[in-house]
Structures are given as C-alpha cells and as structure tokens.
Amino acid sequence: MQKTVCITGATSGFGRACAQRFAAEGWRLIVSGRRTERLDELIRELKTVPVHAIPLDVRNREEVTAMVRDLPEGFRDVDVLVNNAGLALGLEGAHAASLEDWETMIDTNIKGLCYLTRCFLPGMVARNQGHIINMGSIAGTYPYPGGNVYGATKAFVKQFSRNLLTDLVHTRVRVTNIEPGLAESEFSIVRFHGDKEKADTVYSGTEPLRPADIAEIAYWVTTVPPHVNICTVEVMPTCQSCGPFAIHRG
Ligand code: NDP
Ligand code: 8X3
Question: Tens digits of per-residue pLDDT, 104-154?
Fold first, then answer.
C-alpha cells in the first residue's frame, strides 16, 4: 500500500532532498515550509506521486494544529513525520548573541518540533504504527564556540527523541534522531543572515555531506523490519571529526 510521509522544511536542503527520495519510492507526500514559490516548484517537480503542499510556519501552533486537522482524504494516516524544519542563527559568543535569534531558534527547533510531534502522535499510537524522524545535529552533543543556543536546541531534540521512545515503548511507533555534521545546504546562508560569501567559507576546502546523503539515511531508517528502531544516527563527512578540549592559557 502507498505510504504517506510528512516533511517539514521541504523547501530547501535536507527536507527537499527527503521529498525527492521518498517520492522516488512512490510515497504520498505532505510537504511544508514558509516559501510558497518553493512549494509550487516542488509540486511541479514531483509529478509522479500525490503531493499535498501546505505553507506552514512551524512556530505557529494554531497553523500546525489546523494543518494536521484539515489534511485531505488520502493524506490523513501519516506513516512517517520528518521533523526537519529548523535553523541556526548567528555564531556570536553568548555574551554578544542576539536574543531575537535565540528566540527564533527555540521557537522553531524546539517548540515547532513539539507541536508537529504532539499533533501527529495520537493517530500513530491509535494505529499502532508510525515513525517520527527528528533532525538533530552533532551540535546537540559536541559544543563549539558560538553554538550556544543552536546546540542546546539540538540537545533538546536528542533527549526529546529518547523520552518519546520511553512513552511509546508499548507501541510499534518508532523514533529516530538523525544527527548530521557539516552539510552544505542553505543552512549557513540562513545562519549568517543572507551573507553567501561568509556562508561559502564554512565549506571551502571540504567535501561536506550533501542533502541527498541525509535523505538516504532518512529513507533507510524507515525500511528496516517493523520491530527494529534505529534510535540515533550520528553522521559526519570524512573530513570532519570531534575537536580536542579547549584550554585557555592566560
Ligand atoms: P536549509 O536552510 O537548507 O533548510 C531549512 C528548512 O527549514 C527550509 O525548508 C526552511 O523553509 C525550513 N524552515 C526554517 N524555519 C521554518 C519555520 N519557522 N517554519 C517552517 N519551516 C521552516 O537547512 P538544512 O536543510 O541544512 O537544515 C534542515 C535541518 O537540518 C535543520 O533542522 C538543521 O538544524 C538541521 N541540520 C543541518 C545541518 C547542516 O550543516 N546543514 C547539520 C545538522 C543538522 P522556509 O524558509 O521556506 O520556511
Ligand atoms: C549543523 C551542524 O556543526 O554547523 O547542525 O552546528 S553545525
């Protein structure tokens, strides 16, 4: 039977690549994001499968609730939710960072992810079938200068994913936290508030992960036998590793 996947942040990067990957396997797609022209593009591109595209700001709880409540016939029983919408803003130290940026990251990466999860879970539990795939980050495990609130939001995603598993242990609903490292998308352009030149320096001289690499993992975790749950996938490009502890000598 044709399965249904709902992907947030499908207008760019990992989310868009996930939409392409699941479409290639014939899945029915619910795709969302704030940029409607990008959603229109996606509909034109993914002609071979049913697509329900819906403009959505995940920070808006009422919008999220209405989106899930008003899903059209044929799209209501969501098998997989890819909680991908998210962003980093700024790389300043905590003493200099913008509180507005901090709030946007918390509202999107934490609260938005919670709204989507809470809205879709009752259906999944009632059907005793479903899969929540959260887009975490290595930043949720390893600190780096300027990662302050961004990394903390992804640490939330890590622990929330684990706690979901404990609440769902009596069901066959699965939860996976994918934790990518350096990956080229629009992520750094957004982080540096549109400064493409600065964003390019993040990837210069590296071979970063590509959105398609992450989409492959997101699709793969859904294909293992139903009694198997891939809890966490930490993934980095070969050119990246964890740094040493920092010691400041005065
Ligand atoms: P992109 O900037 O390319 O894509 C981000 C997506 O999130 C866009 O589709 C954007 O859509 C959507 N989005 C952002 N804010 C909102 C919002 N308020 N409501 C709805 N959608 C929103 O970045 P990536 O693809 O790289 O990032 C995807 C996820 O992966 C994020 O959660 C990010 O933190 C995480 N990640 C990224 C890594 C990287 O190095 N690239 C590594 C590890 C994790 P729109 O603007 O149209 O709303
Ligand atoms: C994105 C990866 O290391 O830039 O989550 O924070 S990193």
Answer: 999 999 999 999 999 999 999 999 999 999 999 999 999 999 999 999 999
**Contact present, 31 and 8 (Cβ < 8 Å):** no
Ligand 1 atom closest to Cα of residue 57? 19
Q: What is the pLDDT of residues 170-222, one digit of tens each?
A: 999 999 999 999 999 999 999 999 999 999 999 999 999 999 999 999 999 99
CA of 186 to the centre of ligand 1 (A): 8
* Under 8 Å between Cβ of 177 and 229: no
**Position 205, amino acid:** G
Could you give the ipTM of this predicted complex?
A: 0.99
Nearest Cα residue to atom 9 of ligand 1: 9
Catalytic residue positions, numbered: 150
Instruction: Assign residue 57 a region (left: φ > 0; alpha: ψ between -120 and 50; beta: otherwise).
Output: beta
- C-beta separation of 83 from 14 below 8 A: no
Pocket test for ligand 1, best of 6, 8, 87 (most atoms within 8 A of CB): 87
Helix (H) or strand (E) holding 234: strand 232-235
Give the integer Cα–Cα distance in Å for 81 and 4. 9
Q: What are the residue ranges spanned by the domains of the chain?
A: 4-235
Which protein residue has the closest C-alpha to ligand 2 atom 2?
A: 181
CATH fold for the domain made of 4-235: Rossmann fold (3.40.50)
